[in-house]
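User: Structure please.
Assistant: Input sequence and predicted structure:
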Amino acid sequence: MHRQTKLRLQLMLGTALLAAPVSAFAQTAPIQTAPAPVANAPVGLDDIVVTATKRETNLQDTPISISVMNSEALQNRHVQSLMDLADGAVPSLRVATFEARQSALTIGIRGIVPNDANQPAREQGVGVYVDGVYLARQHGLASALLDIERVEVLKGPQGTLFGRNTEGGALSLVTKKPTGVFGMRAIAGVGNLESYNSELHVDFPAIGDFAFKVDGVLQVQGPVTENILPGETGFGQYDRRGLRFQTRWTPSENFTADLAADVGKDKNTPFYSQLLNFNPNGLTVVPFTSASVPSGSIRALSPLVQVEGSKRMTQADIGVPQQWSVDDTRGVDLHMSYRPTDALEIRSITAYRDLDVEQYDNIAGAHRPPVVGPNGKFSRYSLAGFWQHQFSQELQAVGSLGDSIDYVGGVFYFKETVSDDASTPSTNQWNADGTGYTILDPTPTIRGFRSMDRKSTAHSESKAIYGQATWTPASMDALHLTVGGRYTWDDKDGTLELVNNALPVVNGVSGELHFNSKVDRFDPLVTLAYDVSDNINVYGKYSTGYRAGGASSRSLTYRSFDPEEVKAYELGLKSDLFDRRVRLNAAIYAMDRTDSQIDFSLVTVQGASTRNTLETINAPGTTKIRGLELEGQFRATDNLTLSASYAYTDAKVPDTVNPFNGQTQKVFIAFTPENAASFAADWNSPFMGATLKAHVDANYADASHSFEQFEIKNDSSFVVNARVAIADITTRDGGPLLEVALWSRNLLDETYVYRRDPSNRGTLGDYGNFNNPRTFGIELRASY
């Protein structure tokens, strides 16, 4: 670790300890009355409501390691999509793009990070939920967030209550519901990089038993790196639009039905991939014009190619065709709740969602293969389609038996069909000496005229029955024992239809390739919690989880792989101290994972195009993941609140055989820093008849790996965000309340490589992607 980054981490951790570090960055409406404050002492911290156990509970009374960000915290950090949580706001949560594409996100918790889960027969390791509805794919996760009430990050296996593929944890997004009382919030803002955003949220007055709500969002940003080819889009830009309609029907006090429908369109372009160095292996350099490149040599770069190893390119050196990638998402869900008695609630969640993606990714020009000389074709245009639709049905019973037992039970059904295809033509051609280039005929990039690298389809069907109960003995009401489990039946199959634009060929036999997998398994949970006092709780937890197996659609043989399983052990502390002015939560955990799914990739050149072949291997032995999490909050004064959090993760994967060369090698966990920390300060005080709000946060992460097969790491990161606002500005009687805010993300304009690829060291050098530059803007909010 560099001395500067070590110092930053030490300063942040020191501040965190002084501030009595805490969880949630969130302050929500109290669910119980706080003790009366001591005279002249600051008011205590508010309670934080979570629904991690399928019922509303106080965060401090819930024996699960959870981080929470409420709507105010998201607003302070100018979080518009899950992409913005890549800054490390929750240290245990890691968010990164797949490749450099904004159209697919890699989401990990506690070292459970799938490197390439955007294949039809590949699953996530962290479940993403919106109002309890599972989103099965990485694609579309960068879409605009639609009026989020809070984000709950549940750490560790959540199979008992949150379903399949939650071995690392669950990311649960809870939206704001119709109230039946008129209310309107409008937001408009502009910023640098040609950005602008607007939102409109309207709660309509109830009509009889019905309440209605409409949310609309628009988010636009121009390119981070300009494309010098006229008429083509740049790199790192987006245009996100979303619309949702909700209605709540309450015909009686004990029955509620919520129907919601949403549609989203996320147009985006990938971040530019640029050479970070050239010829790092010190090979003999031959001229660009050489007819061939002898073994042990490397071809010189064209004089047009720029190597910027330490700074982000604001303008590409090579102009390339680049279209918008487009993610279209649609969904409808029906939540019903019936309470026959005060001690029982029966719920139903029915949901259908579909996803259409058209990917256009020409991110590197001459900075990655194919590497060619005079008159050669170059600039790999990764074109892909991805189509998914899913249906899920869940029934839950949430209730109590007397005063001593609280329980949750349910059944879950999920069905999904996914298909994809991909093509990688070259779009540019050098002249004889590399001093110029031409753009090739675009016909091979048009759907229907493409030469397909691959085409596949997969189906999944999952059924489960689950439940857990918490027993609090009448004679010892400080003790709480929770026992639960989920029995799952998973059925998957898939077909690889095309490889290199033809039927697959294995051992001389041509024909479609298939895989079929059936898994039945039981995942238990046991938690023992004890209330040391009214404000201090401790717990111990044992749970298991798994990620389903599958097959790699990027494989030449459709090689299948088994599920991976994890056993997790956790000890935790939750405390409110000093008249609830200090909150300190801590968790220490150990996870043992078997059959870890490890990705190995190999890029090969085939004429004017390239192919990325990927094989997924189950690692031998046991992957050991150990960690510590600290989260805290300190109400220093009535006006000032300090928050801090820290995550330490140590992961060791057994050496694994690389299927491309047959050699056993070290492998790693992707996008998981050993140390990560976040600190925030919030000020709130009266100001000239209005309210002054100020926020600053600083987020640090050690360097981490981009790939499981490469030891080379990305850069460490230190990102500061800030916002200052004048809120509660009154206009006229009955007029809206106004808020004017200045915000900035990456305030210090920190530059670091978040993804580094060394796979082309023998032909070019390392190439990679830089984080977003400093962004800033002004925003106006009006609310009735």
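Helices lie at 3-18, 71-76, 159-162.
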